[in-house]
Amino acid sequence: MIRLRMLPPVLLGLALGAGSTATGASAQQLDLDEVFRCSGETVSQDNCLAARQVLLNDCTTCHTFVPIVMQSFDENGWRGLLTRHVENGRVTQVPPEQIENLRLYLAENFNGDLPPPDLPPALLETWTSY
Ligand code: HEC
């Protein structure tokens, strides 16, 4: 839990990175609990937090987290995306059970039934950073 407190600057650094203007980062607070919500009944709070950790540690080196939370896939869609990422050798350090936990988490929270999280425009611009 302590680590989470360190995350927002890391995230903003990653997301806003080089070239961002002074308009955003310091004024905007990103509520991680709102972005990485835990909205359902299937995935426990602990598993939500575990999925969030994987997302932030292993899924934001090539692109920001924005395409992940703005995408809406069902369980199969997320399976396809994650399988493609693993088989392409993009994601190699995450054990299969963590990938499965992430898939369930994403399918429950980012599936088209819920509106996507409200992100500041500067972050949205990073959607297609890949
Ligand atoms: C080694 C680089 C790399 C890593 C690490 C990575 N990705 Fe990606 N990701 C890409 C690239 C390149 C694309 C664009 C091409 C594509 O869709 O496959 C992409 C696209 C995406 C998209 C958008 C797909 C769409 O159809 O719009 C999502 C969602 C996504 N990644 C999720 C993840 C998740 C979840 C993880 C962590 C498990 C992750 N990525 C880790 C390289 C990476």
Bound molecules: heme C
Tally of separate domains: 1
Please summarize the sheet with the most strands.
none
Shape estimate: globular
Report mean pLDDT, rounded to a whole number: 83
Low-confidence stretches: 1-10, 12-27
The amount of beta strand, in percent, is under 5%
Number of E-type strands: 0
Question: What would you say this structure looks like, in words?
Answer:
With 130 residues, this protein is mostly helical. It has one domain. It is 52% helix and 0% strand. It has helices at residues 2-5, 7-16, 32-35, 45-58, 66-70, 75-87, 96-109, 121-124. Helix 4 (45-58) crosses helix 7 and helix 6 packs antiparallel against helix 7 (96-109). The radius of gyration is 14 Å and the shape is globular. Bound molecules: heme C. The site of heme C (HEC) has 14 residues, from helix 5 and helix 6. Heme C (HEC) binds next to helix 5 and helix 6.
Keyphrases for this structure?
globular, about 130 residues, about 50% helix, binds heme C, mainly alpha
Task: Give the helices and strands, then pairings.
Blueprint: H1 2-5, H2 7-16, H3 32-35, H4 45-58, H5 66-70, H6 75-87, H7 96-109, H8 121-124
Helix pairs in contact: 4-7, 6-7
Question: In a few lines, what is going on in this structure?
Answer:
GO terms for molecular function: electron transfer activity; heme binding. By secondary structure, the protein is an all-alpha fold.
